[in-house]
Specification:
- By secondary structure, the chain is of the alpha+beta class.
- The protein folds into 2 domains: 128 residues, Beta Barrel (OB fold (Dihydrolipoamide Acetyltransferase, E2P)); 275 residues, Bira Bifunctional Protein, Domain 2 (BirA Bifunctional Protein, domain 2, 2-Layer Sandwich).
- Helices cover 38% and strands 24% of the residues.
- It contains 17 helices and 18 strands.
- The chain has an 8-stranded mixed beta sheet, with helices on both faces.
- The two termini are 42 Å apart.
Length: 504
């Protein structure tokens, strides 16, 4: 058996010897089933009744603490619901069974125990064990809850231990599960139908982002992991006669990492026929407020040093006006050189030199100081290739973004359903791609063909798990169960390269 170099060799070897001894005495160290009759929380909540009735209970879980005192040993047994003290007595178990427990069982092992409840001399609720069996022998010990896993890289790499040692961290993910459950209940209450759309696409429609690319061997075809939750597919459903649909799913964007950005994350997108972005703002506000109350029990939050309250009616702010007030630049009139000069003056790094990308970068600079919640409206058509143009100002669109704590928390608009207009905007995006813009939207000409058959007026909206992270005042990485990590070998090679460069 290969040794784990990260564990003390002597302790690991001792546990391996105990594993072998368990097999030799006929105890299967890894049985397939358990006869557990109760969760620990059920025992604690009904302790007096079980104590009076002398009910025999079968509990199972992981040993978190083990104290041997000659002929009596105490164990703290833990399952997902809680922890309970167990007592192992030589008198109760018999000499041989007790001896096997003391010599072969360690902290971190999973065991099944049978017994009855009593109150210890110190008044602790305790199960006196009359029989036990091993469920899983742990070869490696668990780090001390206080001193172990302080390094951030190690915490993410051994997330299972991080979660085991940190109840507050486990609570984050219980709340995250509730978060999406509330979203689903809200969508059902509002008569939206859950759908599933492809995650592999021949064109990545529905957003502006750099995609992950792979190859479909059977079709001998390059395909992309989706960058939106099926936006162009869900709109096809509007043309197909559906009127309210939504999907919650994973999205992939081959871009940089930050506390608020990962390359793989969960988003929701919904589409609502015969509705526009004004109705959409009302629906969005109601959804966010319901999440705040049902998941967190409040509407007032602090995220990234900013205070905001999701209650009440959210104000609207104008894209052009907001940028002008913060920078003095009129983005509808300024050319590329003028926007570049302002970005340089502000010390803002930017990529690409087309007007769309520069305008978006300038807005993101302005966004950072807005606590919100607000609806940002009146986006230029240039930065909104899928949104319907406003009738009174055709250079702008019927689009909104939810801004909270200096970040975008949702994006919605009256969907463009004019096939001629959509074709022209896709042609513009194609030109940007040909000039090297990696984030420009790939045209989907079959989608344009669908629009030619007719799609009703439709509102679309999407938001992601970043909202949950902000409500918890944590980074998106911290609220992700298993964020992507570089393999250790690759990480060590990176460190050597950096070291060699410094020496040179």
């Amino acid at each position: 058996m290969e040794e784990n170099k990260n564990e003390p060799i002597s302790e690991r070897n001792e546990r391996l010897k105990k594993l072998q001894t368990l097999k030799e005495v006929g105890l299967n160290p890894y049985p397939a089933t358990s006869k557990r009759s109760h969760k620990i929380i059920e025992v604690i909540n009904n302790f007096d009744a079980n104590l009076n009735n002398q009910t025999e209970l079968i509990l199972a879980g992981r040993i978190r603490r083990l104290r041997n005192h000659g002929n009596l040993s105490f164990v703290d047994l833990e399952d997902v619901s809680g922890s309970l003290q167990l007592a192992f007595s030589k008198k109760e178990l018999g000499a041989e069974k007790y001896k096997l427990f003391v010599k072969l069982i360690d902290s971190a092992d999973f065991i099944e125990t049978k017994g009855q409840l009593f109150l210890s001399n110190q008044g602790a609720k305790t199960l006196m064990v009359s029989d036990w069996k091993i469920l899983s022998k742990a070869i490696a010990p668990i780090p001390d809850a206080w001193f172990g896993l302080k390094d951030e890289d190690e915490r993410y790499r051994k997330r299972y231990l991080d979660l085991l040692l940190n109840k507050d961290l486990r609570d984050i993910f219980l709340k995250k599960a509730l978060f999406w459950e509330v979203v689903r209940d809200f969508m059902k209450k509002n008569e939206f139908i859950a759908v599933e759309t492809p995650t592999l696409e021949t064109t990545t429609g529905g957003a502006e982002a750099n995609p992950f690319k792979t190859h479909h061997d059977d079709f001998d075809l390059d395909v992309y992991l989706r960058i939106s939750v099926g936006e162009l597919w869900q709109k096809r459903l509007m043309a197909a006669g559906f009127e309210k649909v939504y999907e919650i799913g994973r999205v992939y964007r081959n871009e940089g990492s930050s506390p608020d950005h990962l390359q793989e994350f969960t988003n929701l997108e919904l589409y609502w026929a015969y509705a526009d972005y004004n109705q959409g703002m009302q629906l969005t506000q109601e959804l966010f407020q319901e999440l705040a109350i049902k998941v967190f029990g409040k509407t007032q939050f602090i995220s990234h040093g900013m205070e905001y309250d999701l209650a009440g009616t959210w104000p609207k702010i104008d894209y052009q006006t907001e940028i002008f007030n913060k920078t003095g630049v009129d983005v509808l009139q300024a050319n590329e050189l003028e926007i570049k000069a302002k970005l340089k003056e502000l010390g803002v790094k930017y990529e690409g030199d087309n007007r769309e990308r520069l305008m978006d970068t300038l807005w993101k600079y302005c966004r950072k100081t807005i606590a919100g919640p607000v609806f940002l409206i009146n986006h230029p058509k240039l930065v909104s290739p899928l949104a319907k143009a406003k009738l009174d100002r055709p250079e702008l669109t019927e689009r909104f973004q939810v801004i909270i704590a200096g970040s975008e928390m949702g994006n919605g608009f009256s969907e463009l359903n004019d096939p001629i207009d959509q074709r022209e905007r896709f042609e513009l995006q194609q030109k940007l791609i040909e000039k090297g813009d990696k984030e420009a939207m790939m045209p989907d000409w079959e989608f344009v063909e669908m629009l030619e058959h007719g799609m009703p007026p439709t509102f679309g909206f999407g938001f992601g798990e970043r909202l949950f992270a902000f409500m918890f005042n944590k980074s998106v990485r911290e609220t992700t169960l298993f964020p992507l990590m570089k393999p250790k070998i690759s990480l060590e090679n990176d460190k050597k390269v950096v070291k060699n460069k410094k020496e040179v």
